[in-house]
Amino acid sequence: MRRFSQDFRSELKELMKWRRDVRHFKPDPVNPELLQSCLNAFELAPSVGLSEPWRIVRVCTEQARAAALQNFQIANAEALAGYSGEKSKIYTSLKLSGMYDAPEQLAIFCDEATPKGSGLGAATMPEMRRYSVVSAIMAFWLTARAHGIGVGWVSILDPDQLHRDLNLPDHWSLVAYLCVGLPQGDTLTPELETVGWEERDPGLAHWIEV
Amino acid sequence: MRRFSQDFRSELKELMKWRRDVRHFKPDPVNPELLQSCLNAFELAPSVGLSEPWRIVRVCTEQARAAALQNFQIANAEALAGYSGEKSKIYTSLKLSGMYDAPEQLAIFCDEATPKGSGLGAATMPEMRRYSVVSAIMAFWLTARAHGIGVGWVSILDPDQLHRDLNLPDHWSLVAYLCVGLPQGDTLTPELETVGWEERDPGLAHWIEV
What we know:
Shape of chain A: globular
Oligomer: homodimer
Helix content of chain A: 25-40%
Distance between the termini of chain A: 32 Å
Number of domains of chain A: 1
CATH topology of chain A: NADH Oxidase
CATH superfamily of chain A: NADH Oxidase
CATH architecture of chain A: 3-Layer(aba) Sandwich
């Protein structure tokens, strides 16, 4: 059996610790070959029935980027209106998206109607296709960070509006909008913890038994 | 910035290549401390608004295991009935679940109503909570494989039935049923590819531009 060393396992844990949701990017462009090399991690992800339902859309044009940014701004204003007091103050101070400065932006979709895999494993849980896409995003995220490239996942978006704005096939559904670039900083602590929004609870990694 | 070496990156890619969806397990028990150590990777996963909505259920009792296995058997028979010809023949030959022999079985749920994170990032895309759970499963899966432990994700299940059978809180939803143990074999090729069900298509890791 192919073995992995204790040194490698320690470094893998370090990689997971240093992986952050990045929202502050340097303006430097990302080498497109390096970006593709990191995206090749998608091929190594698990997918239900080998359906590989991931569809990667590189958001390049000014028009597409402006539509995505406006989408975020509207959803973010609506979200802010739902908070009051201290939470509202903190929310206002947060930078929840790197869309203003990330040199690369990727919209990742799931092809809900792909014939690939012939539906195996997705009959009772069709959401497995979207979960396969998330698995691939994680493989990409870790690979990118190992190359010093930061990734931030924006979910404060109206997915239907973005779908219309980007003019993509009907049977594709948005899974993630990713900002990609060189991070301005590097920290072991999630920004939401630093600003006092929420703390991590390691106890949640413990099981209950049935 | 914390850097990772080229050697580490190569080995990370190897890990992703050797990660398989394992369905054939040795009967040997998994050391519970090692299992917990691998599950600690959940703490290092991204989660929307730091909501950490993962809930890990270790399926131990004979009753709970029997209910889960029966659930799979019914869903699998229904799925088989949907195929004909060559696909039906291949489907019959597949071992689609390690539930018969995996020494450890984990049902992973998402707490859809967790107050943790105060809903940040999940207003327009509440599915982000489930995606956070999938991210954590991937972190666990890679960590387990780095320790020589195999993981198989069973999705041929009626999630509502399993939820009732395991008698868990209403606001928890099933994301994955994982079989965990020492794999009987080790291969770079997915079983579905070996038996001719489906092939991988590296071209899907390439972007389209908008």
